[in-house]
């Protein structure tokens, strides 16, 4: 049985194909259009390139598909080609399905939190999903409670304020302190990175702008306006650029602190209601990896799963999986192996050679006999490496197949990559990837985090060893390298460990600022040539810049 899932909202569009419950392929529209989060594509959105991609990867056509499923909050232009075949499901239900059906749990509690979801009309006004609680098991997903916030309509759907939304509060603060994408949306990831540089100056004040009790988060439109007004006033009162930067950092600290408090309280309430030992998370708020780790530390849940595509792109996974388990009525049983995020297509040697040939006058190539040993030596010598291997990852985190890798031992490496390669703010941290069997030597948790969605502390005696991936507060957004998911990445880490005694690498996404992660060999070569990357590894080929020898 084949099911095509289509996901997104007004951004982060994605397609996914499953066969008999197994995810065959998934790709985000941004990777193909090369427009970040695929926001503002207009009529081009109806091309739905990601659907063609996943069908082609499986070697099938749309006539070979049994069901097409989409969430009802996705821009309908994205589904136009399949409009006569689409089964519509709720936005939060698709999020919930995306995380439970990719988890290792037979039964679990599920929490979905984002900015906004499916809408309903009540008494002449529009309300949208903001927080949804579920229980899940072999018979599917059941709602425990769903919170909806009143919507204030604007001319642009992306600007519609939703009441009672944790995600909206975080994004509103992000926008107010100046963190915007090129398309005008908020950039909450920047806020999370800045928060450790702040102080508690505004923590008490921000707490006046919402109410939290008995599994409910409430924030009115007037409170949202008052919060934005406070930020604008404090920024205006700051007399110097340095003082304004301190205000921004302090508001980032405050909204991160309150988000953690809110999420912890909601999760504790869900545990009281369900008694479950395992928890699944999805929705944009679940990308707050700092809060995720606090849940592991401070709530009764014993295990936590966060789907790697926790944002709106993950609703394509959830739509397809709910189609199989919910609509088609198949019983759920967890897979014995971890869910693989590597769901893009494989590019063969001929495609790699063609990408190199197109820029042959600007590239030098070599095929070393020992690829991992060769690259490990370059990394240990200070090279910044574009690493392009196998199938691309789903979701916003590079997990070792479309990554930029570097030596974490060099303290200056963080500033060098931010300035010369990623062209982004200097405070932005980088993540470490570590061999699973050596994880506890460097980090304060033994729990594997293969999707880079938890932030434990770096052990105090190791912070000077890996300073390039240790954030200012001593934490790190860690990725655990598991051989069953990415044996090549593990082999590279072992080769680096043999040279340096450190089984850790700096890992960041292979892209320039405000660009999607590279997908094709051509994308990788283009990014390599326009940034100050030292090496590019395409499959088994190592490339340097310079005239062809």
UniProtKB/TrEMBL annotation:
Pfam families: Carbam_trans_C (PF16861), Carbam_trans_N (PF02543)
Boundaries of every Carbamoyltransferase C-terminal domain copy: 376-545
CDD domains: ASKHA_NBD_TobZ_N
Position of the signal peptide: none
Domain Carbamoyltransferase: 2-72, 82-321
Regions annotated as coiled coil: none
Family: Belongs to the NodU/CmcH family.
Identification of the protein by name: Carbamoyltransferase
Native source organism of the sequence: Streptomyces pathocidini
